[in-house]
Specification:
Blueprint: H1 11-26, E1 52-60, H2 65-71, H3 77-90, E2 95-105, H4 110-126, E3 130-138, E4 148-159, E5 174-179, H5 188-194, E6 201-202, E7 205-206, H6 207-211, H7 219-226, E8 231-236, H8 241-245, E9 254-258, H9 267-274, H10 279-283, E10 290-296, H11 301-310, E11 315-323, E12 327-330
Parallel strand pairs: 2-3, 9-12
Antiparallel strand pairs: 1-4, 2-4, 5-10, 5-11, 6-7, 8-10, 9-11
Amino acid sequence: MITYKTAGVDKEEGYKSVGLIKDMVKRTYSKNVLTELGSFGALYELGKYDNPVLVSGTDGVGTKLKIAFALNKYNTIGIDCVAMCVNDILCHGAKPLFFLDYLACGKLDAEVAAQIVSGVTEGCMQSYAALVGGETAEMPGFYQAGEYDIAGFAVGVVEKSKVITGDKIKSGDIVIALSSSGVHSNGFSLVRKLIPDFTAEFNGSLIGETLLTPTKIYVKPVLKLLEQVEVKGMAHITGGGLIENLPRIIPDGLCADIKVADINVLPIFEHINQLGVDKMEMFGTFNMGVGFCIVVDSADVNTALAILDAEGEDAYIIGSIVNGTEKICLN
């Protein structure tokens, strides 16, 4: 007799996976979560808002997963998945409410799945988001043995009167950078072409370990900043780097004049540059050490920097807003 297991899907391993992650997931719950893991849908009570606007975002981790496979290290990529989603919705001033993940594989290993979800729960704890559900799909013949894919979906909320779009940005405003933790989760197709051996030494450790450093989550310090300072615009510096992402919030007729010499470029990017990538290609592909940008009035910049510093952020000025048609200039 043919069974689902002989076709390649082990239901018992799936049940084991759920058992391993249940307690981790519950750590992310708040009083607003009204259902337990395993319900057909997740119920979340919004709470008291005058005119709430829901802000949503979805993303994955991309080919950074290849490094996790090579090093057999799975407990950080879940943080990446959460970070890529919550940092995006944060750009509009939204506080993350809940998160859902999608994990797909060729053959499920409950222990590996639990490691991945442990990263997801850590990311949720760092961003106030409740992990209210998800899907684990075992797809034999579709994915290579030992390989996984992960994607996520986040929903946040902001009062309509406090939505941030960049429309209030004006000439004379200041651009503040928040340092990244590393390459984050973009540009890894190029990274893997340049660095085929993830066990090579780099700055005293495996270069693969450096590359797996999880994407930084900016939710807590930025929400603290929003309580005290009027922030005019925010940009999550992901694929396309500063060149592609900062212009997304700059109004027509204005330009973000960025001083390249003021950017604290991380050693990993200097290493990649030395492997043969042109400097402007670097700035159009990687975050280069700047994971998040915040635009504030010049009168508020010192207060903003002090708040971010108190929250443990490496925040510093990298430019200003000037009149122009380019939207961004790297000088």
